[in-house]
């Protein structure tokens, strides 16, 4: 059943983001495709992080995270933050710190969030965050579909 479940989920197009946090002056981040808007009042999002991920432990400690929603031109960033480990993910990446979390410069969507709750979800933990700041620009989104990065286009 797990193989069938994996195939069904591969056929669902999901947006791609990089979740970031800070420990001291060190940035940390990882690529995710499991995130969503949760509430408008107050503004909240949820992200799903692997129970074994270093980032989850750092988000728990800092109680804050950034959600950097990637655009069509950011497949390289998505790969970098999925493949590398530790702070080397930020090597050669243009970023700043805003509201206490790393912001990847040039991404079409960015949120700074404070952790409000954590829930176990199988081999992942669902992190709820209240949005402290938000910024956006117009850009086609980066999506993950059938195990590849893609984008959407107007017809």
Your description of this structure?
With 155 residues, this protein is α+β, with helices and mostly antiparallel strands. The protein has one domain (2-149): Pnp Oxidase, Chain A (Roll), CATH 2.30.110. Helix content is 17%, strand content 50%. A 7-stranded antiparallel sheet has the order 3-2-6-9-10-5-4. It has a 3-stranded antiparallel sheet with strand order 1-11-12, with no helix packed on it. The longest helix is centred in the N-terminal third of the chain and has 9 residues, at 2-10. It is globular and about 40 Å long. The termini are far apart.
How would you characterize the largest beta sheet?
7 strands, antiparallel
Give the overall shape: globular
**What pattern of helices and strands is seen along the backbone?**
HEEEEEHEHEEEEEE
Average the pLDDT over all residues and give the rounded result. 90
CATH first level: Mainly Beta
SS strand fraction: over 45%
Total strand segments: 12
**Could you say what the CATH topology is called?**
Pnp Oxidase, Chain A
Radius of gyration: 15 Å
- By DSSP (H or I, 4+ residues per run), the number of helices equals 3
Question: What is the CATH architecture term?
Answer: Roll
CATH evolutionary superfamily: Electron Transport, Fmn-binding Protein, Chain A
How would you classify the quaternary structure? Answer: single chain
* Widest sheet: strand ordering: 3-2-6-9-10-5-4
Termini separation (Å)?
36 Å
């Amino acid at each position: 059943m797990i193989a069938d479940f994996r195939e069904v989920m591969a056929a669902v197009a999901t947006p791609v983001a990089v979740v970031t946090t800070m420990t001291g002056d060190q940035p940390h981040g990882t690529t995710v495709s499991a995130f969503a808007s949760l509430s408008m009042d107050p503004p909240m999002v949820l992200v799903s992080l692997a129970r074994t991920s270093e980032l989850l432990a750092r988000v728990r400690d800092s109680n804050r995270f950034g959600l950097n929603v990637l655009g069509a031109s950011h497949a390289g960033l998505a790969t970098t933050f999925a493949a590398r480990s530790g702070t080397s993910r930020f090597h050669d990446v243009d970023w700043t710190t805003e509201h206490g979390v790393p912001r990847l410069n040039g991404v079409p969507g960015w949120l700074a969030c404070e952790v409000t709750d954590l829930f176990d979800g199988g081999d992942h933990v669902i992190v709820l965050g209240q949005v402290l700041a938000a910024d956006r620009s117009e850009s086609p989104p980066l999506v993950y579909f059938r195990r590849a990065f893609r984008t959407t286009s107007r017809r």
